[in-house]
Amino acid sequence: MNAPLHPPAGSSQPEIIVCTDVNSLYERAAAIFVEEAAGAIAARGRFMVALSGGSTPHGVYRLLASADWRDRLKWEKVHVFWGDERFVPPTSPESNYGMAWSTLLSEVAIPPVGIHAVPTDLPTVEEAAIAYEKTIREVFCLPAQEIPQLDLVLLGLGADGHTASLFPHSGTLRHEARWVVAGYLEAAKAFRITMTPLLLNRARAVLFLVAGNEKAGAVREVLLGEHHPDRLPAQLISPLRGSLRWLLDRAAAGRLPREASGSK
After folding, report:
1. Residue 110: phi, psi to the nearest 5?
2. Per-residue model confidence as pLDDT tens digits over 136-190
3. Which residues contact 56 (CB under 8 A, 6 or more apart)?
4. How far is CA 106 from CA 68, 81, 111, in A?
5. H or E element, residue 262
6. Which terminus has fewer CB within 10 Å in the chain: N or C?
């Protein structure tokens, strides 16, 4: 069934955090990651996080894997998922799993049972999406009608206003019941698997990571423009009961009014 394109009633207002440069953004994102992990493990005994692809998360993962950071987490209590994935083998340079593995997961003491990759080895992209939703349900051990709460979701933003693999004017935007769906991106001639807003908006914390002046226009439109989520899918992300933070470098925040942001 098709869902209306508007944020959930009573959903979060974003906190906008502007960092002096991209390295400061990496530091702040890593600190939030560690803080959210510690709180989740203390409260519920495990940390459930959805990772993102892209160049900015790449820098954050490298930092978390460094000698100064990797021992700050109880990795044996961590479960990682992916907010979206390309329908490619894990060895492909296009694989979000492959990037996270090479930069972070292979460098820390996370057990294999805590790594939940999208099964891109299945025959079709739709089968991969269905299987991944089943995996999420099984890991969370929830009743049939209950939607899981990820502790933290990392997201990026495209210059076209997309996030995860929720692209403008695409069928992936309109799902009332599915947590994970498949779609075809015409511009890239590629299939994608993505978590839907139904699942993403149940998270306890959502953190957008955005750097670079090429994203400044999209940042302004998504945060301050009129509500057109069919054209700007990132506007659909607004957690029902969790926090929503936009972590920007100065370049990405360059078209926001000064009063809309706070430098860190």
Report:
1. -90, 130
2. 999 999 887 899 999 999 999 999 999 999 999 987 887 778 999 999 887 778 8
3. 22, 25, 26, 156, 209, 210, 211
4. 16, 15, 10
5. strand 262-263
6. N
Q: Name which of 155, 156, 136, 157 is nearest 147 in CA terms.
A: 136
* 196 alpha carbon, distance to own chain's centre: 11
Q: What whole-number distance in Å separates Cα of residue 240 and Cα of residue 219?
A: 21
Q: What is the pLDDT of residues 21-78, one digit of tens each?
A: 999 999 999 999 999 999 999 999 999 999 999 999 999 999 999 999 999 999 999 9
Cβ partners under 8 Å of residue 199, min gap 6: 136, 147, 148, 150, 179, 180
Retrieve residue 41's tokens: 């493990």
The pairing of strands 47-51 and 180-185 is: unpaired
Tokens of 206: 């959502």
Which residue ranges form the domains of the chain, and what is each CATH number?
15-263 (3.40.50.1360)
Query: Which has the closest alpha carbon to 49: 158, 39, 59?
Result: 39
Helix (H, G, I), strand (E, B) or coil at 108: coil
Written as six digits, the tokens of 138 are 């099984």
Please tell me the distance from the alpha carbon of residue 49 to that of residue 238, in angstroms, as a whole number.
17
* Residue indicated by tokens 């999406």: 129
Provide the β-strand partners of residue 207: 154, 245
β-strands 180-185, 78-82 pairing: unpaired
Q: Which 8-state DSSP code applies to residue 234?
A: G
- Selection from 151, 185, 211, 178 nearest residue 20 by Cα: 211
